[in-house]
Amino acid sequence: MAICQGKSTRTPSGARRVANRGKRKSELGRESAETKLGDKNLRKIRTRGGNVKNRLARDNKINVVDAEGKAQTVEIFGVIENTANPNYVRRNIITKGAIVETAAGKAKVTSRPGQDGVINGVLIE
C-alpha cells in the first residue's frame, strides 16, 4: 500500500472532507529508514529532480562535538533513550534526538540519519 502525504480526508472537527482531486505522485511518501546499530550500510534513494538521498541503514560510529567545540568520531555501544518511540530503544534504532552511549560518554543525536546518511551528535553530561 502506498504512503500518501497529501491532505487528510477528515477536517480538524472530524467531518468528512470531499476531495476535489485524486492523489498525485508528488504526494507519495516512503517508509522510514530506521537506522540500526551495525557495520556501515548506505542505501541510495532517487529523489525528485533526479537527485540522490543517502539513507543510512546501519552504522556504529558517531561524530560527536564536546563543550569546547572539538569533534571526534567514536563508537556507539547502544541506544539509551529515544523520545520518538520507546520501542526504538529495544530495537537500537537511531533517530534525531536519540541519546546513545558512546566511548566518549552519552551523546544526543543532532542529525537525521535516514535523511543525511551520517550520525552527528553532541556530548551531554
UniProtKB/TrEMBL annotation:
Cellular component terms (Gene Ontology): ribonucleoprotein complex; ribosome
Region (Disordered): 1-46
Database matches in InterPro entries: Ribosomal_eS8 (IPR001047), Ribosomal_eS8_CS (IPR018283), Ribosomal_protein_eS8_arc (IPR020919), Ribosomal_Se8/biogenesis_NSA2 (IPR022309)
An example Gene Ontology biological process: translation
Bias-annotated ranges (Basic and acidic residues): 25-42
GO molecular function: structural constituent of ribosome
Keywords recorded for this protein, A-Z: Ribonucleoprotein, Ribosomal protein
Protein origin, superkingdom: Archaea
Ranges annotated as biased composition (Polar residues): 1-12
Similarity comment text for this entry: Belongs to the eukaryotic ribosomal protein eS8 family.
Subunit structure, interactors included: Part of the 30S ribosomal subunit.
HAMAP family per UniProt: Ribosomal_eS8 (MF_00029)
Entry protein name: Small ribosomal subunit protein eS8
Species assigned in the record: Methanobrevibacter ruminantium (strain ATCC 35063 / DSM 1093 / JCM 13430 / OCM 146 / M1) (Methanobacterium ruminantium)
Gene that encodes the chain: rps8e
